[in-house]
Structure formats: C-alpha cells, structure tokens
Write a structure and sequence with these properties.
Blueprint (H helix, E strand, L loop, with lengths): L9 H14 L12 H15 L3 H24 L3 H8 L4 H10 L2 H11 L13 H17 L2 E2 L12 H15 L1 H5 L4 H7 L3 H13 L7 H10 L6 H20 L1 H10 L2 H13 L11 H14 L6 E2 L29 E2 L15 E2 L13 H8 L20 H6 L58
Antiparallel strand pairs: 1-2, 3-4
C-alpha cells in the first residue's frame, strides 16, 4: 500500500481515498477539474488501487482514512505528562476530568500523578463530539506553543515512514541518472514514457538540467543496467536513489546504516539490504551526500509530502551556585638569614689590612623553596654603607682619601683610581675596616690613649 501513496500530499491522499471508498469509479471522473499533472498522477494511483479485489480494497481504504483522521489526535495522546499537567493545572476540575477520560489510561494516570491533589469529579452526561474537538484543538495549540518547528537534519531519515523515504529515493534517483538519461538520445523519450507520472516529471527535469554533462550512449546504458533501469525503469530509478541514501547513512556511521536498513520491509527493505552489502567498506568522499538528502527533505516539506520535525526547546541552564571563597594557601615559610659572624681582619704582607670575612651560618644557606632562593641571597648580603666625603675633616673614625685608595674589594682586587672612576657616595661596596681592639680593652670601655712615640737622638744638655 505504501507505493500507492508515495509523493502524495495529505490533501491528495485524502482525495484519492474518499473518491475510491465512497464514489467508486464514477468519482474518478471528477479529477479532470484538477491541474493536468495532478490529474494524471491521481488517475494513475486510482487505476493501481482499483486492481485490488473489492473485498480487500475497501477495508484497506477505510483503514487508511482512519489513520489520517486519528493522526491529529495522536499528538495529544503522545504528549508528555509533565507538559499536559502544566496546561491543566489552572483549569476547572470538570475540564480536567473530561481530558483525562479522553486520553489513554496510562497517560491519564501519569497526568494525575503530576497534578497531585486534584478533586475527582463525576460527569453527569457524555460530552458532545463537537465540544471534545474544540478542547482537543485548544490543548494541541498549547502543546505546540513550547515546541519549535526546526529544520531537517540527516538523522531525521530514521524517523521517516516508508512512503516518505520512497519519495526521497525517487528524487535522489532522478538526480543520479540525469546524465545517463540525457545520454540516451532518441531512447530518452522511450525511457521516460515507461515511468509513472511522478517519476517521469522528476526524471525529465533532471535530464534537462544535466544535458550539458550527458554521458555517451554506451556509458549511459552501462549505468542504467547496473540498476536494472532498462528492464524496469521505475525500480531502477528508485534503486539509484536508495544507493545514495545508504551511502550517506554509511557516512553518518555504519550502525546508523544498519539500523536504517533493518527498519523497513518489502521492496524498499530489499533495496536497502542490497546496497548495504555493496557500499560496505568503500571509501567515503566528503559528507557522503547527506546535505543533498537534507535539501530534498526541505523541498518535500514545502510540497506538504512530509511534516517538519517538532523539536523541544533546549533546557534552561540552571545557574551554578556561587563558588565559596577559596582559603588562601599558606605560603612556605622562608627562614630569614641570621647575622653573620664577623671574623677579625687579617694583616697582609704589604701592610694593608684585608676586609673582614663574613662566614655564612647554617640559616644563611640557600633555602630550597620555589621563589625563595633569590630572596634569601639578597637578604644575606651585608648592608652597604656610604663612603665618606673627601671634604670631610680628617678624623679617627672617618678614613682619608689615601686610606680609601688603599682599601680593596672582597675579591682581592684594588679599587680603581678616584680620578678616572670616582667611588660612589651612596652605595659603596667597600666596608670600613674596624679598628683592632687592644688585648686589655674590654667591651664598651673607651680605648686607652696611646703615649707619644719616643724620638731618639742626641741628648741635649742644659736647662729644660
């Protein structure tokens, strides 16, 4: 039955069903008031259905009519309990009871659980069908308010019915065989005349568009024989389109292609299984033709052959709780250097006095803490003292210029001459040489005054 309703919109399907079920062959004569392409298509489908015996044809037609009529009602029956309960929570108890009695029992029980404490109302009489239709219509409008009609994706191929997938295969097959049909030359009209009206229109338009890239007659017949289009043009056209669908499904994933082939039965299922074996293991170029199939889905939706997908809006992201104030991690303690032990100065052979040597203690050793070694080295350096000014008066505690020139650096090199490299006044690397303490001198006591040196010479006689 699926092939009789392929490429038909819902309006055309209902027109075909009602004319055959209630009017018989006499109602088919009314098709002449339609457009020529539509009239030819409906007459062809009516002739195919009339070949079925009457005892089998009438039940099939009535069953298909019921499916189309109840398809709109299933939108309410397949609603989510939470969304339906949200719509009914502000309604009167009587209306809630009417709706819960009309939907399936499982859905009604789930909605009662979502509503919570709802007072049950006993209905005194049955509700008229006209009232039920209005209630169903308003509820469907409310359910669609939170649903977005989205664009197609290639994964929507898995949700298509068999008649809808056949329509996609016909359109893809016409594009695949366009250059081959255009290369037949005089045999193209014979090939097109053997096709059904809907496939003939698709193949003629595709061949006209691909005339500039047509194949040779030999290559054209080779391509058509691969799909069996020379013996059965309609089946060959559909086989070429099925091959492209399976190739695109393999580009999506091998499991997706396998599930798609196992979902359908009949002639379409056989074609899917055949090309599933043929396309297995072949390299994939680009996207495998998935965008072309999505384009055909959009065109079929514009013609009313298939419905656009209804997608729920993405969930509202819940604001994350504010992070707690992070406790600052304790910094590694750096041991401050202790004052170094100053050794007494040493006298050198040249008469100069060497600067004091500062020996680092155990606390002044470099601390193996990241970022603390440099700080410890800086802290371990002795403080720099300003060099005395040359203009200052000579004093015991302030060295003179001659004494400054005689001082040496810590590495043993003498200072440069003051005339070429004057010493810095603010930060001098030279440390003052401490005065040597006398053996009998105690800490904190003033140093004893030295006596004047004795001058040897001839003793002078006479009065002093």
């Amino acid at each position: 039955m699926e092939q009789f309703f392929t490429s038909l919109s819902k309006r055309q399907t209902m027109l075909l069903l009602t004319s055959l079920a209630f009017g018989g062959s006499e109602a088919v004569e009314a098709y002449e008031y339609l457009e020529r392409a539509e009239e030819e298509l409906l007459r062809h489908r009516a002739e195919g259905l009339s070949q079925i015996p009457r005892e089998k044809r009438v039940p099939l037609l009535v069953q298909e009519i019921k499916r189309l009529v109840t398809q709109r009602r299933r939108q309410l029956a397949s609603a989510e309990p939470k969304r339906l309960a949200k719509l009914l929570k502000d309604e009167r108890p009587t209306l809630i009871e009417v709706v819960l009695n009309a939907v399936p029992a499982e859905l009604g029980t789930a909605v009662r659980g979502e509503l919570g404490n709802v007072k049950s109302v006993r209905l005194a009489r049955d509700i008229k069908p006209e009232v039920l239709s209005i209630i169903r219509w308003k509820l469907e409008v409310g359910l669609r308010a939170g649903v977005q009609v989205g664009s197609f994706r290639f994964t929507d191929v898995m949700t298509l019915q068999q008649r809808e997938l056949l329509a996609v295969a016909d359109r893809m097959g016409a594009r695949v065989l366009a250059t081959a049909v255009a290369g037949l030359g005089d045999g193209a009209q014979e090939f097109l005349s053997a096709l059904p009206p809907d496939q003939r229109v698709l193949a003629a338009r595709a061949a006209e568009a691909g005339a500039s890239r047509r194949l040779t007659e030999k290559d054209s017949r080779l391509v058509l024989e691969m799909h069996g289009a020379l013996e059965n043009p309609s089946l060959g056209l559909r086989s070429a389109g099925t091959q492209r669908i399976v190739r695109a499904a393999y580009a999506q994933s091998p499991d997706f292609a396998k599930n798609l082939a196992g979902r359908h039965q009949g002639d379409l299922g056989k074609l899917l299984a055949r090309w599933l074996r043929e396309e297995k293991g072949k390299p994939i170029k680009g996207d495998g033709g998935r965008m072309d199939i999505v384009e055909q889905l959009e065109r079929l939706a514009q013609k009313g052959v298939i419905d656009r997908p209804m997608r729920l809006p993405p969930p509202v992201p819940v604001a994350a709780p504010a992070p707690k104030a992070a406790v600052a991690a304790p910094r590694p303690s750096v041991a401050l250097p202790r004052p170094s032990t100053v050794l007494p100065p040493r006298r050198m052979s040249s008469g100069l006095v060497a600067p004091p040597v500062r020996r680092p203690t155990g606390a002044q050793a470099p601390v193996k803490v990241q970022g603390a070694t440099r700080a410890s080295k800086v802290l371990a350096r002795p403080p720099l003292e300003a060099a005395p000014s040359r203009r200052s008066a000579p004093d015991d505690s302030v060295p003179t210029d001659s004494q400054v020139r005689q001082r040496v650096l810590r590495d043993g090199k003498p200072l440069p001459r003051s005339d070429t490299h004057p010493p810095r006044r603010s930060t001098s690397p030279v440390q003052p040489i401490p005065r040597r303490r006398q053996p009998g001198e105690a800490a904190g006591e003033p140093a004893p005054r030295r006596s004047a040196p004795l001058v040897k010479g001839p003793r002078r006689r006479g009065p002093t």
